[in-house]
Amino acid sequence: MELTEITFSGATPIDGYGPGFFRVAGEVVEGPIVVTIASARGWGGYDDSAPLLDLAEDVDVIFIGTGAETAQIPKGLRHVLEDADIGIEVMSSPAACRTYNVLLSEGRRVALAALPV
Fold first, then answer.
1. Beta carbons of 14 and 112 less than 8 angstroms apart
2. DSSP type of residue 94
C-alpha cells in the first residue's frame, strides 16, 4: 500500500477531536465549530444558521457533523440551507472531519460545521 502525505497549503485542517473539543490548525476549540479554509470559530449549533448562510458564496458544500453518531439535522435548518443553495452532507463528526480534510487538501471549496463527540 502506498501512503501519500496530505498537505494543506495555508488552509485550516482538523488535527483532531475528542470529548467536547476539536483541535484545528494546532489550536483547541471547545464545543461546536465552523471551519473554513481560512478560519475556525465556535458555532451555536443547529439554532445558529447565520454563520452557515454567510458561507453561501464561498463554499460548494458544508459537511455537518452530528456528533459521535450520524443523526438527522432539524428540518428547519435543512430547508434554510437548501433555500440558500448551499450543498450539505450530514454525517457523524468524525466522518465529517475526515471528509473535510481530504477535500480541503484537494483545494475544494468546503466547510465544516460540527458538534463535538
1. yes
2. H
Give the helix/strand (H/E) hosting 91: strand 87-91
**Mind listing the pLDDT tens digit of every residue in the chain (117 residues)?**
665 555 556 678 999 999 999 999 889 999 999 999 999 999 999 999 999 999 999 999 999 999 999 999 999 999 999 999 999 999 999 999 999 999 999 999 999 999 999
Find where cell 454567510 sits: 54
H helices, E strands: number in the chain: 3, 8
The CA distance from 111 to 98, in Å, is 12
Q: Tell me if 65 sits within 8 A of 95, measured CB to CB.
A: yes
Are the C-beta atoms of 113 and 62 separated by less than 8 Å?
A: yes
Cell numbers linked to 84: 440558500
Q: C-alpha angle 38/43/47, rounded to 5°?
A: 135
